[in-house]
């Protein structure tokens, strides 16, 4: 039986550049580095940056992305820091809770989101998506 998300590995084209982005700009904790990668963390998240010389931007855009939680009190300062660093945005927020959608140096789609699954489900119960059904807890 699966117990949860173990870690995320992102293929990157330039480890020092990605390390600066995730550690210095987003302020993930630096755990270890090596020639071709790095381990960083947040409470409950293990992130691996792995050098991949074949890394290219995706050919088609889709909604696949990685969302980081951020407290409401810290959201505006984070968005300001990202905008001042000229980090590209890839989408406007269209859902419950404050969100900022941005790209890392390799084009990985990221989101900083205020809220959690419980707040999303509350909002969806008030304004459900087309065909949405809710299920009781087991």
Helical proportion, percent range = 10-25%
Low-confidence stretches: none
Q: How do the helices and strands follow one another from N- to C-terminus?
A: EHEEEEHEEEH
Count of DSSP H/I helices? 3
- Strand order in the largest sheet: 1-4-3-2
Distance linking N and C termini: 16 Å
Largest sheet: 4 strands, mixed
Summing up helix and strand content along with how strands pair, one would put the structural category as: alpha/beta
In one word, what is the shape?
A: globular
Give the SSE layout.
Layout: E1 8-12, H1 15-25, E2 29-34, E3 37-42, E4 45-51, E5 66-69, H2 72-84, E6 89-91, E7 99-103, E8 109-113, H3 117-126
Parallel strand pairs: 1-4, 5-8
Antiparallel strand pairs: 2-3, 3-4, 6-7, 7-8
Short characterization:
This protein is of the alpha/beta class.
What does this molecule look like?
By secondary structure, this protein is an alpha/beta fold. 25% of the residues lie in helices and 30% in strands. The chain is built from 3 helices and 8 strands. The protein has helices at 15-25, 72-84, 117-126, and strands at 8-12, 29-34, 37-42, 45-51, 66-69, 89-91, 99-103, 109-113. A 4-stranded mixed sheet has the order 1-4-3-2, covered by helices on one side. Strands 5-8-7-6 form a 4-stranded mixed sheet, covered by helices on one side. 12% of the residues are buried. This is Fosfomycin resistance glutathione transferase. Residues 4-115 form the VOC domain. Keywords: Transferase. It holds the Pfam family Glyoxalase. One of its GO terms (molecular function) is glutathione transferase activity.
């Amino acid at each position: 039986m699966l117990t949860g998300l173990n870690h995320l590995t992102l293929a990157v084209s330039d480890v020092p550049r990605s390390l600066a982005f995730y550690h210095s700009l987003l302020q993930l904790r630096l755990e270890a580095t090596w020639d071709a990668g790095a381990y960083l963390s947040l409470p409950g998240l293990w992130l691996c940056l792995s050098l991949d010389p074949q890394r290219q931007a995706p050919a088609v855009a889709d909604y696949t992305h990685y969302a980081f939680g951020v407290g409401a009190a810290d959201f505006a300062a984070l968005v300001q820091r990202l905008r001042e660093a000229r980090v590209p945005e890839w989408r406007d927020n269209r859902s419950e809770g404050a969100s900022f959608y941005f790209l890392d140096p390799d084009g990985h789609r990221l989101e900083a989101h205020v809220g959690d699954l419980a707040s999303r489900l509350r909002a969806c119960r008030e304004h459900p998506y087309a065909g949405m059904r809710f299920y009781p807890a087991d």
